[in-house]
Amino acid sequence: MSFDKAAEAITIHVTNLPGWERLRTLAAEADLDEATISEIIGTAAKFSADILEPFDKSADHVGCRVENGRVITAPGHKEAWQAFVEGGWPTLNASPEFGGSGLPFVIHSACEELFNRGSLSFGMLATPCRCASMLLDEHASDDIKNEWLPKFISGEWGATICISEGDAGSDVGRIRTMATPQEDGSWSISGEKMWISYGDHDLTSRIGHMVLARTPDAPPGTRGISLFLVPSDIDGAHNGTIVHRIEEKMGLHGSPTCNFGFEESKGYLIGQLHRGLPQLFTMIIGMRISVGSQGAALANAAADLGIAYAADRKQGGKPDAAPIAIARHKDVQRQLSNMAARAEVTRGLVLTTSILADLSKLEDDDAAKAQHSALMGWLLPITKNFCAESAFITSSEAIQVLGGAGYTTEWPAERYARDARVLAIYEGTTGMQAQDLLHRRLLKDEGKGLKAFLTVAQADIDAATDKEAAANLTQVIAELTQASEWLGGRTDTPADIDYAAVSYLNLASLAATGWVALRLSNLSGDALRDKMAARGRYWLRFIPGMAANEHRLIKAGAAILEADAITFEEA
Questions:
Q1: 443: domain range?
Q2: 229 in a structural domain
Q3: Residue 325 bridge partners (DSSP)
Q4: pLDDT, tens digit, for every residue of 388-422?
Q5: Quick one: average pLDDT of 381-385?
Q6: Angle at 426 between CA 425 and CA 431, to 5 degrees
Q7: How far apart are alpha carbons 163 and 90 in whole angstroms?
C-alpha cells in the first residue's frame, strides 16, 4: 500500500471512530469535514514519502556522530527538519494561544503515523517537543510558558525527557541527579542521565531538557523527585550540559541517543517541589500514545511490504507451467492475513485512544467526560504495548515472507524490525504496562476503565450487523470478564497476580482490538473499505483461541513457576 493509500485508509478510520461526530461538535471551530481531514492527512503522506522516507534510508546507514562535544546529525536531517517546521507540522494540535493550529489530537496522531512510517528516527524529535509543550502548559509558570511554549510548538527549539540513570532505569525512585537551590530562585543541576533521545543535536538553536532530580532535603523514593527545565544555553552561554557519548544501537540510527551529564547547570523548577514524577506523566502519557503511532506505522509498512513482495515474487506451481506468485500459496496467505489484520487493528487502536483523549478534554457533559477519561486510561497501556509488540511481530513476519531477501539491507524489512524492537522497552516496558493495567487500572480503580470498555463494546456488539463477528468478540469479552473476576478475588495472593499481569494485558489487548475489528467489519462501499472490513473479520476469527489461551495462563498462577523450582540467582 502506497503512502497515498495509507492516508486514505487512515482517513476512513478517523471518520468512523466512536465519538467522531461528537468531536466535530465540540471542536466546531476546527471545521472537521471529511474533505479537510483528507487533505491534511494526504499532505502529511506526501511529505513523508517525498522527504522522510528517502532521508531514513540514508540516516540508517550513516547515523550520527560527536564532534568537539556536539552531536552532528546525518546529512539531510537539517533540511528535513526545516521543511517539517516550515510546513507547520509541529503545531497541529498545539494551543493557538502559543502559535498552535488547535486541531484535535486524533488528527495529529493520524499524521504522526505517516511521519513515523517515513522515518521513525525523525519523528523522535517532534514527539518530546509536543509532549513538553503539554507539560509546561499544565504545570509551568506564566513566564516559562511565554518563553518556551511558542518555541517548542513551532519547532524552533527542541526538547528532551531526562529520567534514566545508570542505577535508576525503571526504578525511578533511585535517581541521584541533584538539584541545589540558588539565591536567584533557580536551581543548580548536577548528575548523569542516559538513554536521552536527541540529548544534543544540530537541528534547533536551543534545547530544553525536562529533568527529574532530587533536592537536598527530599524524602527517599519517587516522593522525593522534582521536575526541572534545564536549558542547553542561557543568553547564548553554554549551560553545563555535556554529551559523553552516543549509544551504539540496534536501530533508530538517525536518532542520537545520548549519555548525558549536567555539571552545575542552571535549571528552573516546574510545578510543585517533590511532585516531579506525577507532573512528568502529563508528558509521558502523550509519549506513550506516540509509541502506539510508531508501532502502527511500522506494522502497516511491514505488512504492505510483505503483501507487495508476495504479489510480485514468482515461485512454485506446476512444473510444466510458469511459476506463480507466492501470494497464492496458502502458508504465505496465512502469514499475509495475520500481518494485514494485526496492522489494521493496531492503527485503529491508536486512533481510538487518541480521540478519547480529545473527548476527555473537550466534553462538557461531566458524566460523559468521566466515561471517556476512564476508557482512555484503560486503553493507554494496552495501546502502548500492543502496538509496540505488533510492530516487531509484523516486521519479523515480513522478513519471513521475503525470505533471504528480507534478511538483507536491500529491503527495508530488517530495518523495520531493528527500529521496532525498542518500542516495547522505552516509555515503559511490557511488564510495566502490564502492572499498570492490572494493579492501577483494574484493582485500585474499582475497574472503572474496564466497566467503561465493557459498556461500549457491548453496545457495539448489540448493534452489529455481522453476527459472526459479534459472536467472536462476545467470546473474547467473556474470557476477559472471567479473568478479571478471578484476579479480583486473588488480592491475597500477590504472586498469582504478578505472574498473570502480562497475560492479562495480552487478553485485554485482544478484547480492545476485537472491538476495533468489529467496527471495521461494518465498513463497505468501495474496494478499500471492503478490504478493511475483511481484515477486521479475520482478526475476530483469529483471536478467540488466543484469548482462551491467555485466560488459561492467568489461572495457572505463580504455581507454574514453582513447580520445578527453577532459580535465577547466580551460584
A1: 429-563
A2: yes
A3: 314
A4: 999 999 999 999 999 999 999 999 999 999 999 99
A5: 98
A6: 45
A7: 24
State the first-to-last Cα distance of the chain, in angstroms, to the nearest integer: 53
pLDDT of 84? 98
Examine the pLDDT at 563 and tell me if it is beyond 60: yes
Q: Could you tell me if 544 and 459 lie in one domain?
A: yes
Per-residue pLDDT at 167? 86
Assess whether pLDDT exceeds 90 at residue 61. yes
**Region 379-392 average pLDDT:** 98
Residue with cell 509532549: 131
Closest CA to 482 of 413, 548, 536, 570: 548
- Of 95, 123, 154, the domain-final residue: 154
The number of folded domains in the chain is 3
Q: Are 515 and 462 a contacting pair, CB within 8 Å?
A: no
Q: Which of 389, 387, 196 is nearest to 292 (CA)?
A: 387
Q: Say if residues 236 and 181 touch (Cβ distance below 8 Å).
A: no
Q: Do residues 128 and 261 make contact, with C-beta atoms less than 8 angstroms apart?
A: no
- Cell numbers for 270: 516546574
pLDDT band of 83, cuts 50, 70, 90: very high
**Domain identity same for 142 and 178:** no
The CA dihedral of 129, 413, 424, 18, to the nearest 10 degrees, is: 70
Residues written for the chain:
571
Tell me which residue of 505, 159, 143, 539 sits closest to 341, measured CA to CA.
539
Q: What are the phi and psi torsion angles at 175 (to 5°)?
A: -60, 150
DSSP state of 64: -
Sequence-distant (6+) residues with CB within 8 A of 258 are 71, 194, 196, 197, 198, 199, 200, 243, 244, 245, 246, 247
Kindly state the average pLDDT of the residues 509-519.
Answer: 99
Calculate helix-pair angle for 120-139, 105-118, nearest 10 degrees: 150
Q: Which cell numbers hold the place of 521?
A: 467489519
Q: What pTM does this model have?
A: 0.95
Handedness of CA 200, 145, 276, 428 (dihedral sign): negative
More confident residue, 28 or 269: 269
Encode 47-86: b = buried (16+ Cβ within 10 Å), e = exposed: bbbebbbebbeebbeebbeeeeeebbbbebbeebbeebbe
Identify the residue whose cell numbers are 514519502: 49
Q: What angle do CA 280, 281, 283 make, to 5 degrees?
A: 75
Among the three residues 221, 254, 274, which one is the final residue of a domain in this structure?
A: 274
Place of cell 492475513: 337
Residue 510 lies in a domain: yes
Distance (Å, whole) CA 25 – CA 15: 13
Helical (H) or strand (E) element with 80: helix 77-86
Task: Say how far residue 535 (Cα) sits from the centre of its chain.
Answer: 22
Q: What is the pLDDT of residues 526-542, one digit of tens each?
A: 999 999 999 999 999 99
**Continuous H helices in 190-268:** none
